[in-house]
Amino acid sequence: MWDRHDVDFVDTHLLPWEKVPAGEFGSAGSGVRRVLSSSLGSKASTTVLRVREHQKGTLAADLDLYVLAGEGTLNGTALGQADYLYLPAGTAIDLVPSVVGLTLYCGFWGDAALLSEAGTTEGVTHLRTEEMEWSSPGWNGDVPLRTGALVKTLREDDRVQIYLAAMVPGWRSEMEEAHPVYEESYKVYGDMLMGARGVMREASYFFRSPGVYHGPLYSRGGTMSFIRSNAPTTTDYRTPQSGGNWDELAHRAYGY
């Protein structure tokens, strides 16, 4: 699952849409996908999936699903933008997109196949994240964190921690930072300066191995990201090198 090449970072709008292979989740009705990253040793992958037709079958592997756009029903229950679902292997899928279709962020823990065998709906988690309350993050440890960084925890177990992370307009962190965990992030909306790497904007994606320094961080207009890591996140900080101060980088990136 976590054995992937680092992607730091990519604007997924620039990736080509490709037809979903036959037999996989999303293939009915000529669904299309963008592949963001894949495991080197298994069939786990992360994709953005666009579907307009009925999808029916049983999942071959666990799936983390976040609705980026559109609406529909899943197993008779309304499905809408910003919903998060954890669907374990063996879950029966009866997905009916509305006329506008669905755009889904899909984190497959293995083979993306939809099987013809009977499934179940036991163990499914379905959260309407816009109805959840924000809380303060704990990834900064003893280092003070500027007010305006917020999280919503969606799933946490011995394999993964999944959460939404948001920052208010003007929020910044002036140090470079690294985390001792694998980290995968998709920018749902907004902007975030990632140090000298530039500005992540809506639909940008990264996958990082543990210990990769990044930053300083700054968001001009505010931001929210969907993040998965293999354990609770903690942070190591260091002072940026000459020319790497947040205000210098922001001036070059945003033009002010």
Question: Can you tag this structure with a few keywords?
Answer:
mainly beta; nine-stranded antiparallel β-sheet; 21 strands; elongated; 4% helix; Jelly Rolls; 256 residues
Count the E strands: 21
Order of helices and strands: EEEEEEEEEEEEEEEEEEEEEH
Mean pLDDT: 95
> How many domains, in number, for the residues?
2
The CATH class of the largest domain is Mainly Beta
> What structural category arises from helix and sheet content?
mainly beta
The CATH topology of the largest domain: Jelly Rolls
| Separation, N- and C-terminal Cα atoms | 41 Å
Structure write-up:
With 256 residues, this protein is mostly beta strands. The chain folds into 2 domains: 7-131, Jelly Rolls, CATH 2.60.120.10; 149-254, Jelly Rolls, CATH 2.60.120. 4% of the residues lie in helices and 48% in strands. It has 1 helix and 21 strands. 36% of the residues are buried. The model has no long low-confidence stretch (mean pLDDT 95).
Element layout with pairings:
Layout: E1 7-11, E2 18-19, E3 32-38, E4 45-51, E5 55-59, E6 63-74, E7 77-80, E8 83-87, E9 92-108, E10 114-115, E11 125-128, E12 149-156, E13 161-167, E14 172-173, E15 176-178, E16 183-194, E17 199-201, E18 204-208, E19 217-218, E20 223-229, E21 236-238, H1 246-254
Antiparallel strand pairs: 1-18, 2-3, 3-4, 4-9, 5-9, 5-10, 6-7, 6-8, 6-9, 8-11, 12-13, 13-20, 14-19, 15-21, 16-17, 16-18, 16-19, 16-20
